[in-house]
Amino acid sequence: MKTLHGKLVFLRALEPEDLQFIYEIENDLSLWEVSHTQTPYSRFLIHQYLENAHQDIYEAKQLRLVICEQGSNNPIGLIDLFDFDPKNERAGIGIVLKDIKDRQKGVGTEALTLLIDYGFYHLQLFQLYANISTENSASIALFTKFGFELVGIKRGWNRVGNTRKDEALYQLINKQQ
Question: Which intervals hold domain N-acetyltransferase (predicted)?
């Protein structure tokens, strides 16, 4: 699908071979805060998830795609549409790059461009939203670069250890609708 190809990366569907990659991301303690993970995931649970990954976004209410560098099928990250609501034409959006070495190179920017375009032009969404910790300056910079606007702060929304952290809600309206 040409739609999901950029100059640096392309987005592809999940494959059974992605089990180890997803296992590593889901069990990376440094990512639990942004993914709201509470417990480790077993390979068995991820295998079951991958078996159901064939479900259409209208059925599953989410779409998880693998970010791969152009010229390689090796995964470097994941990008998602979640809480897909076709009636109200909206979805949440999230992204994670597994290794720090892949960040700050334009990879996240291009992957987000591809998924925003897909959401607005193929799924006919009116709006996308992102929930971002107010302390996550890299994600805030990435999303605001696309015109996502801060629409609210959820005070003490997430408990991280013994601390409560604020979460910001950012929204992007499809101006073509």
Answer: 9-176
**Which amino acid is present at 135?**
E
Residue ranges covered by each domain of the chain: 2-126
The model's pLDDT over 32-64, given as tens digits with 9 standing for 90+, comes to 777 666 777 788 888 888 887 878 899 889 999
Residue 45 to residue 8: CA distance in whole angstroms: 31
Half-sphere exposure (CA, 13 Å, Cβ side) for 118? 24
Class of domain 2-126: alpha beta
From its phi and psi, is residue 124 left (phi > 0), alpha (psi between -120 and 50) or beta? left
Q: Which segments within 14-135 are labelled E, that is strand? A: 63-69, 75-85, 90-97, 127-133
How much is the pTM? 0.90
